[in-house]
Amino acid sequence: MTRERAGTARYPFSAVVGMDDLKLALLINAVSPSVGGVLVRGEKGTAKSTIVRALAGLLPGVAVVEGCRFSCDPAAPDPGCPDGPHFVAGDVPPRARGRTRSP
Ligand SMILES: [Zn+2]
Fold first, then answer.
1. CB within 8 A of 1, min separation 6: which ones?
2. Would you tell me how many other CB atoms lie within 10 Å of the CB of residue 26?
3. Over its length of 103 residues, how does the chain's per-residue pLDDT go in tens digits?
4. 26 closest CA partner among 49, 9, 3
5. 71 CA to centre of ligand 1 in angstroms
6. How far apart are CA 25 and CA 38, in angstroms?
């Protein structure tokens, strides 16, 4: 499942004027995450957050476990997730422990 917040319109990445070095850094990091990230800093009101949010509009959707607030990967959910346990497709959830009835 992919998700995107409903009702949130993003400002287009290409519509931000200037900040060419930041745009380049964000795009390089998106293409090659081995870069390790981008630290964005600058004066208040210079569209730092806007451009980072706009980048999300260029990226493909990500599959997440439905209902998980921490966006666990459905193929390899975090076993320590506070919203878990999540079960990988094909897994059978453990049965509740307790006494069983005899037939
Ligand atoms: Zn989770």
1. 63, 64, 66, 74
2. 19
3. 444 555 567 788 988 888 899 999 999 999 998 999 999 998 999 889 999 999 988 888 888 888 899 989 888 888 999 998 887 766 655 454 444 444 4
4. 49
5. 6
6. 7
Which residues keep their CB under 5 angstroms from ion ligand 1? 68, 70, 72, 81, 83
How many other CB atoms sit within 10 Å of the CB of residue 86? Answer: 20
- 1 CA from centroid of ligand 1 (Å): 13
Query: Which are the contacts of 43, defined by CB distance < 8 A and separation ≥ 6?
Result: none
* 62 Cα–ligand 1 center, Å: 14
pTM: predicted TM-score of the whole model, two decimal places: 0.59
Q: What is the identity of the amino acid at 87? A: F
